[in-house]
Specification:
Blueprint: E1 8-10, E2 26-27, H1 33-42, H2 47-63, H3 77-86, E3 87-88, E4 93-99, E5 105-110, E6 116-123, E7 129-132, E8 136-137, E9 155-156, H4 159-173, E10 187-190, H5 200-211, E11 223-227, H6 231-241, E12 244-248, H7 254-260, H8 269-277, E13 288-294, H9 302-311, E14 317-323, H10 337-349, H11 373-394
Parallel strand pairs: 2-3, 7-10, 10-11, 11-12, 12-13, 13-14
Antiparallel strand pairs: 1-4, 4-5, 5-6, 6-7, 8-9
Bound molecules: S-adenosyl-L-homocysteine and iron/sulfur cluster (SF4).
Length: 395
């Protein structure tokens, strides 16, 4: 369960800069087909041909991952020039890139407006791997065990900003074009910063773009959206995206869940469970994942393991036991290994697969619930160090 601290860290390459004209140019990366069509028309393509041009752009951007209009060989030179006058193919700036000794990679990305989000690639066994994407800067919810929830500034990400996280990861993993058979980025999980169901419009559009077979082509069954339980949006999520559902359960009774996941006061367990049972397409082939963070002495008793099994009886489900990832100032501790194992045994005996999620990327603070806050902290300490240096230089 522990990983060695062979931390490889390097600063990101400087962002691509352009002469003068760049200030007003916007990136096409992350846009929908309709938005690309509009960009083509604005760049001088006659409306009757714009849809065809948009599909060509789509393929260059999302299948080939090109970063330069000049590579788009089947698009007329004048059209390319018109596009390049107004647009770029830039990704968000990588402020920091870290690689864990276990292969986990984390990127801190700067968005327009200066806010930052984190994206984490978690390699799995064999050739598969999941990209953990953020849906918001920070989170308005305040789950007591989650560090992201302590962040004050929050805003929704646009669909383009969500898709751009996948583009950055594919660039860094060198996995273009989509037809590259050695791709390791095979799955997407919305388990980064933020509550995806508070930003469903952008999440749904991003999923449409990411899953399109002519582009990034990560199928809807390989995309999982995790929610802390925004009940009214669970049905619409299934209907609009066809994505896999994950529920951050963490407790089996309202009293404890009210405390750990305060949103439970608004949408208590009974309503949550009803919404899950009604999730479109739920079946043995499309199971819901219940996430359960193991908090020492709080929710990890055998009685609670049995209550968990009872609560989800009849639902096609997997259970993900997540060892709590501590952060500075938290009141919680992670359950002991043996306690987690006994808890898992109860769940397994009831017929549920319950992998204990091995914490990944702990050495780069990339594990669940540790996102962003760590970078904020690092930056704070960098500012303090710079201030100390300045003070020393003055004296
Ligand atoms: N807001 C969404 C998705 C992001 S959180 C949600 O809550 O589902 C992704 C997962 O990490 C959730 O299951 C969350 O409960 C869990 N998590 C948060 N903080 C954690 C921590 N410190 N240790 C382990 N898991 C944590
Ligand atoms: Fe937000 Fe999810 Fe963290 Fe709760 S666990 S504060 S919903 S990111």
């Amino acid at each position: 369960m522990t990983i060695s601290l062979d931390l490889s860290r390097r600063t990101a390459p400087a962002p691509v800069t352009f002469a003068l004209a760049t200030a007003e140019r916007t990136s096409l990366v992350g846009l929908s087909l309709e938005e690309l069509r509009e960009a083509a028309v604005a760049a001088g393509v006659e409306p009757a041909k714009a849809r065809m041009r948009a599909r060509q752009l789509w393929r260059w951007i999302y299948h080939y991952g090109v970063t330069d209009f000049s590579a788009m060989s089947d698009i007329a030179k004048e059209v390319r020039a018109g596009l390049a006058e107004r647009h770029t193919l830039d990704r968000p700036q990588i402020v920091e890139r870290q690689v864990s000794s276990d292969g986990t990679r984390k990127w801190l990305l700067r968005l327009a407006g200066g806010q930052e989000v984190e994206t984490v690639f978690i390699p799995d066994v064999a050739r598969s791997g999941a990209l953990c994407v953020s849906s918001q800067v920070g989170c308005t919810l305040t789950c007591t065990f989650c560090h992201t929830g302590t962040q004050r500034l929050v805003r929704n990400l646009t669909h383009a900003e969500i898709v751009a996280q996948v583009m950055v990861a594919r660039d860094d993993l060198e996995e273009w074009p989509t037809s590259n058979e050695n791709r390791r980025l095979t799955n997407i999980v919305f388990m980064g910063m933020g509550e995806p169901l508070y930003n469903l419009d952008n999440v749904a559009t991003a999923i449409d773009i990411i899953s399109d077979g002519d582009g990034i082509a990560i199928g809807r069954r390989r995309i999982t959206v995790s929610t802390s339980g925004v009940v009214p949006e669970i049905g619409p999520l299934g209907a609009r995206t066809g994505a896999m559902l994950a529920i951050s359960l963490h407790a089996t009774n309202d009293a404890l869940r009210d405390e750990l996941v305060p949103l439970n006061r608004k949408y208590p367990l009974e309503e949550l469970m009803a919404a899950i049972r009604a999730y479109p397409g739920l079946s043995n082939a499309k199971r819901v994942t219940f996430e359960y963070v193991m908090l020492k002495g709080v929710n990890d008793s055998l009685a609670e393991a049995r209550a968990l099994v009872q609560l989800i009886a009849g639902i096609p489900a997997k259970i993900n036991l997540i060892p709590f990832n501590p952060w500075p100032g938290t009141q919680y501790e992670c359950s002991d290994r043996a306690t987690i194992q006994r808890f898992a045994d109860v769940v397994n005996r009831a017929g549920y697969a319950s992998p204990i999620r091995t914490p990944r990327g702990r050495d780069i603070l990339a594990a669940c619930g540790q996102l962003k806050s760590a970078s904020e902290k690092q930056r704070k300490s960098a500012i303090l160090a710079a201030e100390r240096e300045a003070a020393a230089a003055e004296s």
